[in-house]
Amino acid sequence: MFFPGRAATIYYRPMASLSKRSVVAANDAFMSIGGTGDSPRDLDVGTLGILHPTVLQNFEIGYPCSSVELDLDPFKKEIVHIWEDEVGQDGIES
After folding, report:
1. Are the C-beta atoms of 69 and 47 separated by less than 8 Å?
2. DSSP 1-68
3. Across the beta sheet with 2-12, what order do the strands follow?
4. What is the rounded CA–CA span in Å between residue 54 and residue 57?
C-alpha cells in the first residue's frame, strides 16, 4: 500500500520491430516518449511509490522509504530478438 498521491504506474511501450537501426532510433526517441498509458500498445509493467505509514509501522521500519515493483516478462521477447539480430539464429555472430 502506497501513501495516497505518492505512487505511479510504470508503462512500457514496445517497438513495432527490432533491428540495429530501430534500436538506435528507439534510444533517440526514448527521451520524448511520455508514456501515460494512453496508447493501446502501452503495457503496465509495474508501480513505484512511497510506502504508507501503516506499512512502515507493520514492518517496523522507522524511516520513510519507497518501493518499486517491475514485471520483466514483457521484456523477454525483446531480449530474444536483440540476441538473434546480433548473433543470428544459427548462433554465429554476424
Report:
1. yes
2. -EEEEEEEEEEE---S---HHHHHHHHHHHTT----S-STT-EEEEEEEEEPHHHHHHTT--S--EEE
3. 2-12, 43-51, 66-70
4. 5
DSSP code of 91? S
Q: 1-55 pLDDT, tens per residue?
A: 898 899 999 998 877 655 555 555 555 554 444 445 566 778 899 999 999 999 9
Q: Where do the domains of the chain lie?
A: 2-87
Per-residue pLDDT of 49-93, as tens digits, reads 999 999 999 999 999 999 999 998 877 766 666 656 555 555 555
* Cell representation of residue 54: 501503516
